Structures are given as structure tokens and as C-alpha cells.
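SEQUENCE, C-ALPHA CELLS:
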Amino acid sequence: MAAKLMTFRVLVPLTILTVIVVAILYFNTASRPAKNSSWDPVVNEEMNQAKTLQKLGKLKEALVIYERHAAEDHPVAMFYAAKFHSRGWGTTPNLTLARGYYLKAVEYSFPYRGETAYELGRLFQRSKGEDCNVVAMEWFRNALKWQYVKAALQLAIHYEKGLGVEPDPEKASEFYEIAVAADNEQAMIKYARLLTNQELYDLFDPDKATTLTLRALRHLERKANAGSASAAKLIGRLYRDGDQIPQDLDKAQKWLRQAAHLGSTGGMHDYAHMLLSEKRKASPNEAIGWLKKAAKMGHGGSMTALGRFHLKEQYGLEKEGAVHWFEAGSEVPHGGSLEELARLHHQGILVARDKEKAIKLAKRGQRLGHSGSIKLLAEMMLESSTSELDQTTRNVIRR
């Protein structure tokens, strides 16, 4: 029965999650003995060839090798094939296919088992079902159990924001400590922000926050200078925001530009916004180009930004193009796109007026913890209490 259920779980699309949620919670992968994978020198050599092709940027050729051995249930091949499909490396992004590979790979005892569980958690964070954050947390717990310490950061974020669990700053602090001990710079930055929240009396510690931020900055500069796009992006954001270190927009632009050129989609998004800011006074063409490049690579924030620029007819963009970008961003999913698309359907702007669809979209944004979607949903529910709605729409609101 468990084998049949696993096959079904792999084939079900991301939009249909009820059975998957029950399956994962009931047949907990961590509670079953892991399968052993056989070592084959020929396969091992071909996997090394694929990794070399990957490093050379020949992603399509690498994916062919990974998929050939993934079809034979080789766990490492399944792991890499999933990673390629989830990120769109050498192929069109396909989260359903990626999840299928990950779900089969995680049954095996192999070096990437913890990271596989972590990637499953990240995929469920991006899925549409109501209980996806709950399932994501289970996978992050498994990942941490299997020594993939990066999962501690995601668990801390879930507890801090109340995603799939009641908000618990103390519990978040515990997981941040685990991630910080593993030298996770992003955890240092986020934990520092938590420690400067004056409403959290028991956790408030500005001196520790400063120490963590400076420690993160030192680590990030070393990594960025060695070619890390994500490190350059984080440094740029620190200098841009100026809430943990003195603001320096010139340094922020320098680091974000570096992140963008190194391939960080978040860096492309942030660099574009800096170029468009009044203080930078740059031509918008370069900025829009970076946003489109990031959007093409699957960055939801860039899709939302492009949609909003179209909606406001800024930078020579036509209003009608907004819906395309909001719909694309909603599929990622990105909270901003969900909010904007919900608002359009609620008001009947550029699309047919559909209050039921608007509520569903806002609810998806709410499950992501997106404040704009939460506010819009509250407004629509308040409006519904004083207006006549059909029974179907009332049922959507109650759910």
C-alpha cells in the first residue's frame, strides 16, 4: 500500500495536495528504513562527467546524463535532475517533475538525503495547498535530523512568521542559534533583526545583534570577493537598508550590480530598483532589462514589479501587460502578484470581475504570510458582511 501511495504522490500535480499532505504525515519518510543504493563505477564516472559539464555551463548536456540515471532510480542522479527542473537549469522549470524526483530520492540513504528533504520543504513553501507550510516544516525537520543544518534557518523563519505553526519567537531563536553556529550569514542577519525588536522583551539584545551583523558582513565580503552572487546580494541589501549598518547607497549599488552580473535574480531585482530610484537618476531601460531577465529566470518579485509598472503605465509600458506578469508571479507564487491579481478580479480591472477568484487569490497570499494579501482579504471579508453574496462565495470566505 505504501509503495502504491508513493507512486501516486509523485504523479499528483502541485495544485492538488490534500492526498499528498495526508500521505506525508502518515507515511513519514524519516520513520521508515532508508533504501541502500548500489555503487557502480561506470555510473559514478558518468555522474562525474555530468558535474563537469554543469561547471562548464553545459546544462542541457548534464541534464541528459542525470535523467538517464534518474530513470534507473539512482538517488544522486534523481537529486540533480530534480534540482535542474526546479531551477530551470537547461530546461523549462517544472516543479511537479522536480518534486517527483526528490520524493523518490529521499527514500535512499545517500550523501544528499538531508539536502533533498530541504529542497522538498522549499518546494512545498511554493505550493498552493492550505497545509503546504505544515508539510514544508516536516521536511525541514527531517533535513535537520539528517544533518542538513541549513534547514534550521527555514524552521526559524516559520516560527518567527507563524507559517504553518503558531508564531513563537523563542522557538525561532533556538533555530536561529543552530543556523548561526553553522556560520549561516542569512541567519545572522535575520536573527539580528529579531533581537532588535523591542516588543520581544525577553529576546531584545542590540549588542548581540550588532555583533552578529558585523560577523555576517565579514563572512559575506570574503564570499562575494570569491564570486558568490548571493553573498554580494546580501551585502548590497545591508548597505541599502541601513537598519543594521550605516546606509551607503553607493556601496549598495556596487554590490547589487555585482550580484546581478553574477546571476543572482534577487540581485537583478534589487539593482533594477536602485537604478529606478530618484536618488540614482539612471535610465529606466537598463533597469527594466534586468527585471525582465530575472522574471524569465523565475523571480516572482520581478514579475510583480513589471506588472505594477505596466498597471501604472510607467517607463513606457502598456497597462494591458500587467495581467500577464501578475498571473506569472502568482504561479511562482509571489505574494505581491497574488494581491495585485486578487485586486484586479475584485474590481474588474483588465479582467472579468470575479469576487470568488479574488478571495481565493488573497487567501493564497495570506498563507504565504504576505501582509498586502492579508489586508486585502480582510477588506473583502468586511465588505462581504455588508453586501449580498451568492452561497458559493460565502463558502469560499468561510474556508
